Amino acid sequence: MKKPFLTLAQAREIVKTFPTPFHIYDERGIRENARALKAAFAWNPGFKEYFAVKATPTPGILKILREEGCGVDCSSLTELMMSERCGFSGTEIMFSSNETPGSEFELAAKLGAYINLDDLTHVDFLYNTLGGVPETVCCRFNPGGVFTLGESKEGFQVMDNPGQAKYGMTRPQLAQAFARLRELGAKRFGIHAFLASNTISNEYYPALARLLFQTAADVAEETGCHVAFINLSGGVGVPYRPDQPANDIAVIGEGVRRAYEEILVPAGMGDVAVFTELGRFMLAPFGHLITTAVHAKHIYKEYIGVDACAANLMRPAVYGAYHHITVLGKEDAPCDHVYDVVGSLCENSDKFAIDRALPEIETGDILAIHDTGAHGFSMGYNYNGKLRSAELLLKEDGSVELMRRAETPEDYFATLVW
Ligand SMILES: *Cc1c(COP(=O)(O)O)cnc(C)c1O
Fold first, then answer.
1. What is the mean pLDDT of residues 208-220?
2. CB-based burial of residue 157 (10 Å sphere; 0-12 exposed, 13-18 middle, 19+ buried)?
3. Are the C-beta atoms of residues 269 and 259 closer than 8 Å to each other?
4. CA–CA distance, 163 with 267 (Å, rounded to integer)
5. Distance 4 CA to ligand 1 centre (A)
């Protein structure tokens, strides 16, 4: 059973000030989860989580994570600018981008961020852009092939396709990049890789860590370069479906610790810091998209039309992603109706749920769409002239704070030349 963090009474109170649709985030959940992550990696003195800003680029959220000791992982100019305005500086910022414009490297370097290079050719591009290279530089590794974990009758627990991904350098290029960077003045190095997305497995991070730790030990021996940190990137997932088990971050941290003890410590690299760049795991479960049922339509199927649409949350439309739905106030009612829950875009993919068993929904009912705290609002867009919603924070004391107001038509028209 998935329980929303918002009650019907709370939602009714909120909509008096902030009409639906809106995204709302649970401060308590965010903080508790961030602390659990930190505890799971407390064995590594240099550990730091760099929250992937693209998942939830909202200052109110970034500031909470900063208070919990997190840094930020930025991928663009505006994410760097937002992070700076939220008080992040220096090595609290990781800059992991690809096909990066020179101006973005310039800002990252000016902020003193760790720069994570996506390609061998970016080494000289960085040097030519900055007129030098930072003392510490990270390189993104792509081992190629297919990455699998945990084979069973039902298939693999985790399967992804690094060999088809545009990111990172090959293994020989990684050593070349280190050697060239050192020639240009770099003294300390990081290694990063992202092999699989939204993994529901306590084995993903330990397996990735093993691969990266061994690669780091080999490359350090080959090149004589000093590896200062290993960045395990994102990819630890969340159970979007109620029947999926949740990852146990304590077990994951312990699995990474074991790999560290077995590979890095014997290689004389027991001073290497472990970094993470989690987005989804940090925020997804702690956000709901709150929407009101506005129409009920009966044709060949039963449709419930809501006031949110794929422009507020595109994962179902684009990936066919499952997002659980709770009808607030009917948490314990029998799910004896089957609906398609749909938005108002002129796109037939604009369906939050298809053939979903739910309690009977009446017009005016308020629905919570679960697990929208990451890659939810941030992937929003303005198709059909739809306006982006507000983002609210449910604070630990139960009060509600506006973090981003809803767009108005004036915002939508602001860039137009008439
Ligand atoms: C998207 C991304 C992340 C975060 O991924 P999650 O799946 O949200 O954990 C981390 N690092 C990089 C480089 C990314 O592109």
1. 98
2. middle
3. no
4. 28
5. 25
CB 139 within 8 A of CB 128: no
Model confidence, pTM: 0.97
Per-residue pLDDT tens over the stretch 56-92:
999 999 999 999 999 999 999 999 999 999 999 999 9
Alpha carbon distances (Å) from 183 to 124, 180, 229, 304, 397 = 11, 5, 20, 63, 54
Give just the sign of the alpha carbon dihedral 306, 239, 358, 329.
Answer: negative
Distance separating alpha carbons of residues 212 and 192, to the nearest angstrom? 8
Q: How many Cα atoms within 13 Å fall on the side-chain side of residue 370?
A: 18
How far, in Å, is the centroid of ligand 1 from the Cα of 50? 10
- d(CA 231, CA 192) in angstroms, rounded, equals 5
CB atoms within 10 A of CB 59: 16
By residue count, the chain amounts to 418
Nearest to 70 by CA among 33, 97, 120, 99: 33
Query: Is 22 close to ligand 1, i.e. is its CB under 6 Å away?
Result: no
> pLDDT digit string (tens) for 117-157?
999 999 999 999 999 999 999 999 999 999 999 888 888 88
Separation of alpha carbons 329 and 292, rounded Å: 13
| Closest to 137 (Cα-Cα) out of 194, 185, 89, 189 | 189
pLDDT at 232 over 90: yes
Can you tell me which atom of ligand 1 is nearest the CA of 96?
13
Ligand 1 touching residue 279 (CB < 6 A)? yes
C-alpha closest to that of 64 among 286, 238, 369, 254: 286
Residue with the smallest CA separation from ligand 1 atom 5 is 234
In the 3-class helix/strand/coil scheme, how is 230-257 assigned residue by residue? EECCCCECCCCCCCCCCCCHHHHHHHHH
Cα torsion angle, 184, 186, 187, 188, sign:
negative
Nearest to 258, CA basis, from 210, 300, 223: 210
Q: Are 38 and 69 in contact (CB under 8 A)?
A: yes
Residue type, 8: L
Question: Residue 4, preceding bond cis, omega within 30 degrees?
Answer: no
Nearest 10 degrees: Cα torsion 111, 117, 120, 121: -50
Nearest CA to ligand 1 atom 13: 96
